[in-house]
Specification:
The chain is mainly alpha-helical. The chain has helices at residues 27-36, 43-59, 65-76, 83-89, 94-101, and strands spanning 2-6, 9-13.
Length: 111
């Protein structure tokens, strides 16, 4: 098990960088995780991350790519709920990377 250093705290993550305890998530944690991925979070990213957290609260799972796209399209419209937009924001792996940055478990059907 590894740890992220966020301020004075060490946050436990698994070997792939997902939070061990979902309650450890915060915006500063997301910023550190994004930086480790070479990503600078903008408003567009936060919009998706917060939406993903809503999805998880509602369904108790992290969506794979297709359900993620459909959910974003439903909530934010087709301009944002499409694979090109999400792939651009999350480096070609929107379901996995967005779930990680949102502090959620890895989607179960992602390799």
């Amino acid at each position: 098990m590894s740890a992220l250093v966020v301020g004075d705290a060490e946050i436990a993550v698994d070997q792939e960088g997902y939070l061990v305890d979902l309650a450890d998530w915060s915006e500063p944690v997301a910023l550190v995780m994004a930086q480790a991925e070479g990503l600078e979070l903008q408003n567009e990213h936060w919009e998706i991350l917060l939406l993903l957290r809503e999805f998880y609260q509602e369904f108790q799972l992290s969506p794979a790519t297709r359900p993620l796209i459909r959910y974003v399209a439903l909530k934010l419209g087709p301009d944002k709920g499409n694979s090109m937009h999400l792939n651009r924001l999350f480096l070609g792996t929107p379901a996995k990377l967005a779930a990680k940055l949102a502090g959620l478990p890895k989607p179960s059907n992602c390799i």
